[in-house]
Prior knowledge:
The structure holds two protein chains of two kinds. By secondary structure, chain A is of the alpha/beta class. Chain A contains five helices and 15 strands. The longest helix of chain B is centred in the middle third of the chain and has 12 residues, at 102-113. Chain B has six helices and eleven strands. Chain B has one domain (9-117, 150-217): Glutaconate Coenzyme A-transferase (3-Layer(aba) Sandwich). By secondary structure, chain B is an alpha/beta fold. Helix content of chain B is 19%, strand content 26%. Chains A and B meet through helix 3 and helix 4 of A and helix 4, helix 5 and helix 6 of B.
Amino acid sequence: MAWTRDDMAARAARELKDGFYVNLGIGIPTLVANYIPEGVHVTLQSENGMLGMGPFPYEGDEDADLINAGKQTITELDSSSYFSSADSFAMIRGGHIALSILGGMQVSEDGDLANWMVPGKMVKGMGGAMDLVAGVKRVVVVMDHCEKSGAPKLLKECSLPLTGANVVDLLITELGVFEINRGKTPVRLIELAPGVTVDDVRAKTEADFEVAL
Amino acid sequence: MADKVRKNALEALDGLLFDGMTIMAGGFGLCGIPENLIAAIRESGVKDLTVVSNNCGVDGFGLGILLENRQIKKMISSYVGENKLFEQLYLSGELELEFNPQGTLAERIRAGGAGIPAFFTKTGVGTLVAEGKEVREFDGERYVMEMGLTADLSIVKAHTGDAEGNLVFRKTARNFNPMMATAGKATVVEVEVLVANGQLDKDNIHTPGIFVDRIFKGAVFEKRIERVTTRPREEKATA
Lengths: 213, 239
């Protein structure tokens, strides 16, 4: 019984520490905001130009001038601030954001991340992902362990164009948690989802990893 | 002193448009886009445009209407995933595309407007983005050189402006607008509220009027929302 999307988000939320400025990507990472541990206060940055992202507005209170990086309507908090895209990425690139939680298409054992392009097929763009992985102090990737076809996504080397090289610190999938450490040390499997065995993980993983449960 | 105030988008763009030009358009998604100016550019029929904008609108709104009319030759953007026509035109070779990481795009525009021809950033090192560009090491870390970016025309949306062209943006509608205002050979601004000089708090002006050549009050602001997300009134805040 592997983890659900919400379980993965809840596990990622345990990476949040009190006082952190955090940027959450689109998809499962957005769900992390629902699982911020009690007593932990974090400030969510939205790279389109806001610190202190509040919850979704009540129906009828939507403001077209107030959206997050996923283009969803949001609200402000008493502590919120707004700024330009240049200032926003000065925060990101300049190392002022403690943690970024992102989705991924492939992660390599060297800590490379691919999540923005499939040549000839998907043309969406990297948005702010390349800046985030280059500048944020700690990068956590949350993704499905395998593709729909069953092909592994934790690889020896990414086959898709990279978002960043040697950038991933931690990987969370429905099967478990891997310490990637930007490729500075061998990949280590540090947690398993309930009912998942090391053999299950080996069968679905191309990358070499050590078991450190 | 030259009067910067114009009656409408058409008048504000008078004499500024030509085929093959480069236009910077403010906005993130559909938030803070100069929708009146985009509509007027569509009306003008000007073509072979290179457009610098973080996104390319959606099918039927924002910059999407210039795509539909085949007025855009090349886009410089960070993310275009909201637009089906875009993907189709690009994959069929009808549209050129240059992807820039969002922060690199913002900084290229800021640099262009600030007279800085190039800068080094660690964003994109070891990726396709760095191909063909100078990579240099500073303090043991590798950085890629990116060029400043300017345009023949910048089209900007602000919430409030005065006759001098001083601008105040509202919430996340600010995004790329302030940098683009600095990087256009000509900068044209549409505002929801146009006030007389003296009405704005001079300590809280986001873009000083020096960067603005023409300003007008937009006729219509649809301000379409891309993804309406709400919570029920009973529920407690979770995010």
